[in-house]
Design a protein that fits this description.
Radius of gyration: 20 Å
Low-confidence stretches: none
Pfam families: Bac_luciferase
Family: To bacterial alkanal monooxygenase alpha and beta chains.
Mean pLDDT: 96
EC number: 1.-.-.-
Number of helices: 13
Shape: globular
Protein name: LLM class flavin-dependent oxidoreductase
Structural class: alpha/beta
Enzyme class: oxidoreductase
Largest sheet: 8 strands, parallel, barrel
CATH superfamily: Luciferase-like domain
Strand order of the largest sheet: 1-2-3-4-5-6-7-9
Strand content: 15-25%
CATH class: Alpha Beta
């Protein structure tokens, strides 16, 4: 089974954004050695505890320090940008790192209303134009505008030998439909959705096949997971992530991912304990055997081709260990 990494470049309490970004590069290197298929990094703007506002910058840095693992955005938040500039950027990455670049496309704002206004004046209007923007971006990536189109003589240079592989990322029927209509691969964000995702994924697969395209639908299921040597240790490590999310909900998460010690000492209210139980139901937390079993169940349930794993912990060592233990269960030929 293919497994991959989604990185949100989390900042732990007591650390800097620079340290977090360097840890992201190290995580990609480790993921490559362990045999993970791809490494994607997310885009967030002025978001407490997350350090990557420009995936394209990080991908250049990470690409120069890795050799084989596929690299991509999870996702480029397209309503903020002109498709032509996005195509230029990812074509350049694909030129520098041949046959290794993915371009995940999303429509979320990625930050507060104020940050959204600072990035783009008409975000909601650009969201409405998302289907047209995606088509335009794909034409630029494939360099195949019709001859009578206004951009037919414009190339998103440099043109790589192998174009970036486009993916639509989402959690809704709209995103699945958009991916199927455009013949792109689709990544469903299980970790951030409260919807009936199995139906959404199935609709993508069936709609894609109904288009009669030569290629087959390709899908990723993105899951939040924490794996440790024992179930008890995994639950203990996960408590930092739970507390951070509770703090974010209260507007108090600006110090970054709290330590396990902070989380253990925190006086959770009964409502907050209920929130934690809901979080745990959405996540995969446990020892290697338990995590493997649950990930295989999700893969089958969602008919996914690949599982992409998001892991947020206070200690970088715990995050690496989680990915290592999962790789040990699924990848027998890693270095």
């Amino acid at each position: 089974m293919k497994i991959s990494i989604l990185d949100q470049a989390p900042i732990s309490s007591g650390k800097t954004a620079g340290q977090a970004l360097r840890e992201s590069m190290r995580l990609a290197q480790i993921g490559e050695k362990l045999g993970y298929t791809r490494y994607w990094i997310a885009e967030h703007h002025d978001f407490s505890g997350l350090s990557c506002s420009a995936p394209e910058v990080m991908l250049g840095y990470i690409g120069a320090n890795t050799e084989r693992i596929r690299l991509g955005s999870g996702a480029v938040l397209l309503p903020h940008y002109k498709p032509y500039k996005v195509a230029e950027t990812y074509n350049m990455l694909a030129t520098l790192f041949p046959n290794r670049i993915d371009i995940g496309i999303g429509r979320a704002p990625g930050g507060s209303a104020e940050a959204t206004m600072a990035l783009s004046d008409n975000f909601l209007e650009q969201v409405r134009k998302m289907p047209e923007s995606v088509k335009e971006l794909l034409h630029f990536l494939h360099n195949d505008f019709p001859s009578d189109h206004m951009y037919s003589k414009v190339s998103a240079s440099p043109l790589p030998a192998v174009s970036p592989e486009p993916w639509i990322l989402g959690t809704s029927e709209k995103s699945a439909k958009l991916a199927a209509e455009n013949g792109t691969a689709y990544a469903f964000g299980h970790f951030m959705s409260d919807k009936e995702g199995t139906k959404i994924m199935n609709d993508y697969i069936q709609s894609f096949k109904a288009k009669g395209k030569l290629q087959q639908p390709q899908s990723i299921l993105t899951v939040s997971a924490i794996c440790s040597e024992t179930t008890e240790k995994a639950e203990e490590v996960a408590l930092s992530d739970h507390l951070w999310k509770i703090q974010l909900a209260k507007g108090e998460g600006n110090r970054g991912i709290p330590s396990m010690e902070e989380a253990k000492q925190y006086p959770f209210t009964s409502d907050e304990k209920e929130m934690i139980e809901k979080m745990r139901k959405k996540m995969v937390i446990g020892n290697p055997r338990e995590v493997k079993q649950r990930l295989l169940e999700l893969k089958t349930l969602y008919q996914a081709d690949e599982i992409m794993i998001l892991t947020i912990t206070h200690r970088f060592e715990d995050r690496v260990q989680s990915y290592r233990l999962i790789a040990n269960e699924f990848l027998t030929d890693h270095m």
